[in-house]
Amino acid sequence: MTLGRTLWCIILIKLFIMFAVLKAFFFPSYLKGDAGEKSEAVSTELTARKVSE
Amino acid sequence: MEAIDTSLVDWSRAQFALTAMYHWLFVPLTLGLGVVMAIMETLYVRTGREFWKQTAKFWMKLFGINFAMGVATGIILEFEFGTNWSNYSWFVGDIFGAPLAIEGILAFFMESTFIAVMYFGWNKVSKRAHLASTWLTIVGATISAWWILVANAWMQHPVGMEFNPDTVRNEMVDFVAVAFNGGAVVKFCHTVASSWVLGCVFVVGVSCWYLLRGRHKEFAHASIRVAAWFGLVAALLTAYTGHHSGRIIAEQQPMKLAAAEGLYEGGHGQGLVLAGVLRPGVDWAAPTQEDKMLLNIEMPYALSLLATHEAEGYVPGIRNILEGGYTLPDGSKALSAEEKMLRGRMAIEALAAYRDAEDEEDKAAALKALRENFDYFGYGYLKEPADLVPSVPLTFYSFRIMVMLGGYFIVLFAGLLVLRHRVEKWRLVQWGVVLTIPLAWLASQAGWVVAEVGRQPWAIQGLLPNVAAISRLETGSVQTTFFIFLVLFTLLLVAELGIMGKAIATGPETDKSAA
Q1: Is B253 a domain residue?
Q2: Residue B297 has what DSSP assignment?
Q3: Is residue B284 in a domain?
Q4: Partner A, chain B 358-397, Cβ-Cβ below 8 Å
Q5: Taking 60 as the threshold, does the pLDDT of residue B320 lie above it?
Q6: Taking a contact as any Cβ pair under 8 Å apart, which residues of chain A between 28 and 47 contact chain B?
Q7: What gap in Å lies between CA B15 and CA B485, rounded to an integer?
Q8: How many domains does chain B have?
C-alpha cells in the first residue's frame, strides 16, 4: 500500500472508532431538551454539587 | 441528588490528560517542522538549486505523516468537552466556544486548503505560488494554535465576560480582552517558540543519524545548519517568553508559582530554586516540623525579581495563599481560603435563590448577592483549603525538567553551529544529538504538566473546579473509554513511528538531484 493510502486508512479507522463506536456505546446525551431545559439541568447540578457548611 | 464520586473526577481528568498529552506529541512537531521545511523551500526559490527542493520535500513528507496522525486527536479533545465536561461547556461555552469556532473556520480551513497545494501543487503552480502555499499552511497551523491557546489562557485567567443567571452561562462582553490578554499572548509565544525548538531538535537528530550511517551527508549538513540557527533563535525566544510567563503566573496564579518553586512559606526577597529535592510524602497544605525540602540550592532574590521585578518583592508561599492577609499588588488584602470558600457558597446559594425567586424583589436581592460573590463562585465546591494545593512534586520537578532541558537545547544548537562540518568527525556528539530527540518531547510535555497540574483543582480559575465541571457519567464508562483511547492512541503512535522510521530509512532524494 502506498504511504498516502496507509495514512487515509488509519485516519478513517480512527475516526470511525472514536465517533461511531464510542459515541454509540459510552457517551449518552447528558444535556437534553431545549436551551431552557439545559440551563435548568446545569443549574440544578451546579447547585447540588455545592459543599454544605 | 447523589454526590459526585471523586474517582469520576480523577478518571475524567485522566482521560482528558491522556488525549491532550498524545495530541501534544504531534502538534509541536507540526509547528516546528513546518517552519523548517518552509525555510528550505524558500532557499530553493532563492537559489534555484534542486538540492533544496528535495530537502524541503523530504521534511514535508515527514510533516505530512505527523499531520495525518495528529489531526484526529485534537478533534477528540474538542468532543470530550461535550461528553465529559458538559457542565463546563454549558457554563462557559459562549466564551470558550468562540476561539475554537474561529480556529475551525479560519485557521483549520486555511491550513487544509493550502496543504493540498503544498503536496499536490509541485510543477502545477509557479515556484512562488507553491512557496506561498507552504508558508500559508504553517501560518494556518500557527493561527490554529493561537486560538486554542487563547481558549486555554482564558481558562487560566477568565476575563471579558459576564455571568447570566437566567441561562447559567458566562457571556462574552469584551472579545479583545479574551483574545489578547497578556496571558494569551505570552502563552502563544512561549508555546510556539518551544514547538520550533522541538522541530529543530528533530531535524538535527535525524540529520545526525544520517551522518552516523554515512548517508546523505550534504543533506544532513545543510539541514543541521538551517535547524541549528533557527533552533538557537527559537530556544532563546522560549527562554525570554518563559520569563514573562513566570511573571504572569505570579500575578494570576500565585499557587501555581508556589507549587513550581516548592515555596511553602513566602516572603520578601525570595530566591529561585536552581536545584532542589522535595521531602517525600510531605503534606504541602499543612505546617510540618521538618523542612519540606531535603535539598535547596537557590539563586538569591531571583524569584522576587522574576515575579515582581523587584529584588525585595513579596512572593506568597502556599501557607500565605491559604491563610491570606498579605497585601496584593492592587493594595487590597488577600482573602484566606476559608473566606473565599464561604463567599463561593454564598454565590451558589444566591444563584439557586435567583432561579427559585418568584417576585422581582427576591430576584434582585439574590442577583445582588450573586454579583458580589461571583468572583469566588468556584470556591463553594471545595471541601477544605487543602483542595487548593496542586500536586507540588509533579509541578516542581516538571518545571525543573523543562527549564534544564531548555538550557541544554541552547547549548546544543550553539555547539552545532560552532562545530559546523566538524560534527561529522565526532560520533559521540552525533549519538548525543540523536538521543536528544525524545528529550524535546519530554521538555514540551513537562511544560504542559506545569501549566495544567499547577492550576488544579480548577477547570476555570476561581470559577469552576473539576468536580463541578464534569458530566455525571458512569465512572465505569469513563474508565473503559480511557483504556480504549490508551490502546488506540498507542497504536497510532506506534504506526506513526513505524511509517516515519520507514520514510527516514528511505531518505531524501537529494543525492539523485546532486548527481
Answers
A1: yes
A2: E
A3: no
A4: 380-383
A5: yes
A6: 28, 30-31, 35, 38-40, 42-47
A7: 8
A8: 1
CB atoms within 10 A of CB B79: 15
Shortest distance between the Cα of B366 and any Cα of chain A, in A, equals: 14
Residue type, B384: E
Q: Where are the beta strands (DSSP E) in B189-319?
A: 267-268, 272-278, 293-299, 314-315
- Whether residue A51 lies within 8 A of chain B, CB to CB, comes out as yes
CA dist list (Å): B94 to B161, B163, B410: 9, 11, 41
CA B238, CA B398: separation in Å to the nearest integer?
16
The answer, yes or no, to whether residue B484 has pLDDT greater than 50, is: yes
Partner B contacted by A9 (CB < 8 A): no
Residue B185 has a CB neighbour count (10 Å cut-off) of 18
Q: Report pLDDT digits (tens) over B59-118.
A: 999 999 898 877 767 778 888 888 889 899 999 988 888 888 888 777 777 888 898 899
Smallest CA-to-CA distance from B352 within B1, B12, B5 is with: B1
Position B212 in a domain: yes
Does residue B433 sit within a domain? Answer: yes
Q: Is B109 left (phi over 0), alpha (psi -120 to 50) or beta?
A: alpha
Domain extent for A31: 3-48
Distance (Å, whole) CA B352 – CA B245? 38
- pLDDT by residue (tens digit) across B19-41? 999 999 999 999 999 999 999 99
List chain B residues with CB under 8 Å of A18.
Answer: 72, 75-76, 79, 488
Best probe of the B interface among A5, A46, A53, by most B CBs < 10 A, is A46
Taking CA atoms, what residue in B is nearest to A18?
Answer: B76
For residue B483, the chain A residue with the least C-alpha distance is A22
What pLDDT does residue B213 have? Answer: 94
B449 touches chain A (CB under 8 A): no
Q: Evaluate whether B339 touches B330 at the Cβ level (below 8 Å).
A: no
pLDDT, tens only, B439-471: 999 999 999 999 999 999 999 999 999 999 999
Rounded to a whole number of angstroms, the distance from the CA of B352 to the nearest CA of chain A is 6
Per DSSP, the residues of B327-338 read BPTTSPBPPPHH
Q: Is the pLDDT of residue B513 over 60?
A: no
In a domain, A53, yes or no: no
The pLDDT value given to residue B515: 39
Which grid cell is B244? Answer: 514573562
| Count of domains observed in chain A | 1
Considering only CB atoms, which chain B residues are within 8 Å of A22?
481, 484
pLDDT number for residue B479: 92
Predicted confidence at residue A53, as pLDDT, reads 64
Q: Which of B71, B341, B472 sits opposite A45 (nearest CB)?
A: B472
Q: Which domain holds residue B18?
A: 6-258+394-487
Provide the pLDDT confidence category of residue B366 given band limits of 50, 70 and 90. Answer: very high
A1 reaches B (C-beta below 8 A): no
